[in-house]
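Example record for the data management plan.
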Amino acid sequence: MEKRDYYEVLGVSKDADDKAIKSAFRKLAKQYHPDVNKEPGAADKFKEAQEAYAVLSDPDKRKQYDQFGHAAFDSMNGGAGYDFSGFDFGDIFSEIFGSGFGSGFGFGGSSSSNRRRKGADKLMRVNLTFEEAVFGTKKTINVPVSSDCPSCDGKGGHGEKTCRTCHGSGVVTTEQRTMFGSFASRTTCPNCHGDGVTFDEVCSKCHGNGKVTKNTDIEVKIPAGVDTGNQLRVPGKGEAGSNGGPNGDLYLEFNVQDHELFMRDGDDIYLEIPITITEAVLGCKKEVPTLYGNVKLTIPEGSESGDKHRLKGKGIENVRTGVNGNMYVILRIVIPKKLSRDQKKLFEKLDETDLESGQEFKKLRDYIRRNS
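Corresponding structural encoding:
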């Protein structure tokens, strides 16, 4: 079968840079690697993508290919095609699938069992009061931190020796014959679990894990304006790395408690305040609490339930921009449940006056008249 153009295989243009070529191969490798895709034809597509990447990621081979096409490599091997078995896909497969994943399908690859690896990240949830979230705070948090076991230097055992199964490589290779040819598939060694070594004795302190955990208090500065679901990264406080790699990071996810009066919507604050009928009709000045102290709010005469008044800049400071949101005061007219005799007489006197001259009452009366 005639080979497809390598640029076409990866789906990139001929002037694509190294970053674009690598990104295209990563996408195809995730999709067609035979260890994750068992569909017919996946192995062939994966091998094709590997070959294209092995050429286009190498400046010299790419230059030869751009000038002579596939013939550049056919001529080097008497028409048998260029030998790509020496190309090392170990690093890129570790990036795609994680360390220890078999990288030798179709072509060669090197073991990553001894590569420095960053430790895993951790997530902790932290409860905050409403005020702590709004204004920021410092918190002392007790965190379980893992580190290399001092008894075995993080190895997990004593009496280290090379694994007999994989001979120290951390992987085992099996050959698979298909209609497309023979393929070598590399997987993590089941005996040493990819470490390349075994031990005469498992460490009793860490039970073979190589890590020990102890609780440590750390002080964290929480910025103003955080909300439920926001996260804060604390570098280097995650799980310990492997083979001298750095620790992972700790992520704090916040859960903010509700306030007894204020309701939050992003950076804005809402407050519902009760007013009497007379305050709504005649207007008044009302003392209103805010996050920054009490203020006097003018309620105009003829106010209704649901009227909204904005207090600019009295909301919450945005955690990224530092700009304050607004506060909105919502009026709620409270109808008295019980009236004294004198109060009732006042309302009865008021009822004798024409209070239904407004457009709202007229619209309702007109509709009833037309449909009666």
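Summary line stored alongside the record: The radius of gyration is 36 Å.
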